[in-house]
UniProtKB/TrEMBL annotation:
The gene is trpF. SUPFAM superfamilies: Ribulose-phoshate binding barrel. HAMAP family: PRAI. The keyword rRNA-binding does not apply. Residues 5-208 form the N-(5'phosphoribosyl) anthranilate isomerase (PRAI) domain. Pathway: Amino-acid biosynthesis; L-tryptophan biosynthesis; L-tryptophan from chorismate: step 3/5. It is an enzyme of class 5 (isomerase). It comes from Mesorhizobium australicum (strain HAMBI 3006 / LMG 24608 / WSM2073). This is N-(5'-phosphoribosyl)anthranilate isomerase. CDD domains: PRAI. Belongs to the TrpF family. GO terms for biological process: L-tryptophan biosynthetic process.
Length: 219
């Protein structure tokens, strides 16, 4: 089974090159001004040119207003919107229609009961991104480098398409793949040397760890 891999929070040509060299299927740009990974829409549009035909560009927003989303869509020309705030199913449907783009809805999880929150989005969101709940005091809804208990995904309907996210890194990706067997994975702070600073060597190390874990499972 193919495994989609999204490297999120890209801000530099070097990080983009490392993500593409490793074989990223998705590259994410953060449009949440409080984030250390924030990038201006025009700069994201410049960076994403390197990914054309190689990886899908994802615009990550948090309860963004229409005018900002219009600007992001115009300048980035994303392949998908990732909604990482408290957007309702109605808002997801509205944005899909307004922009003619698929939507990935992020949902924070910590226990099996949280999976019930995805039901109203089924048939509306094109994909889910399961992330950990932000730690107390964090101003960021994502990119906190915190993992949740992947075993809760065992109770998930097999038809649900999702990315596993939250606190992944080269050291734990083998366990994550073994326990959750996700169709896609997403990483941000696990390939950073400091908040918002992607490290090409850590990106390469992550891809190596993914390949090793997959080879182990195939053996
Ligand atoms: O990364 C951010 O700064 C961010 C800010 C606001 C909303 C979402 C954000 N990130 C979204 C992502 O898709 C991250 O890759 C995801 O939360 C995983 O992050 P990490 O735990 O650091 O790998």
């Amino acid at each position: 089974m193919a495994l989609d891999i999204k490297i999120c929070g890209l801000k530099t040509d070097q990080a983009m090159a490392a993500a593409l060299a490793g074989g990223a299927s998705h590259v994410g740009f953060i449009f949440f001004p409080k984030s250390p990974r924030y990038v201006e829409p025009a700069e994201a549009g410049r960076l994403r040119e390197a990914a054309r035909g190689k990886a899908l560009a994802i615009a990550v927003t948090v309860d963004a207003r229409d005018a900002f989303l219009d600007e992001i869509v115009e300048k980035l020309q994303p392949d998908m919107l990732q909604l990482h705030g408290s957007e309702t199913p109605e808002r997801v449907a509205e944005l899909k229609a307004r922009h003619g783009l698929p939507v990935m809805k992020a949902l924070p999880l910590s226990e099996a009961a949280d999976l019930e929150r995805l039901t109203p989005f089924v048939g509306i969101a094109d994909r889910f991104l399961f992330d950990a709940k932000p730690p107390k005091g964090s101003e960021l809804p994502g990119g906190n480098g915190v993992a949740f208990d992947w075993r809760i995904l065992a109770g998930l309907d097999a038809g649900i398409d999702y990315m596993l996210s939250g606190g992944l890194n080269a050291a734990n990706i083998g366990d994550a793949l073994r326990l959750a067997n996700p169709p896609a994975i997403d990483i941000s702070s696990g390939v950073e040397s400091a908040p918002g600073v992607k490290d090409p060597a850590l990106i390469e190390q992550f891809f190596r760890a993914v390949r090793a874990a997959r080879d182990d499972r195939a053996a």
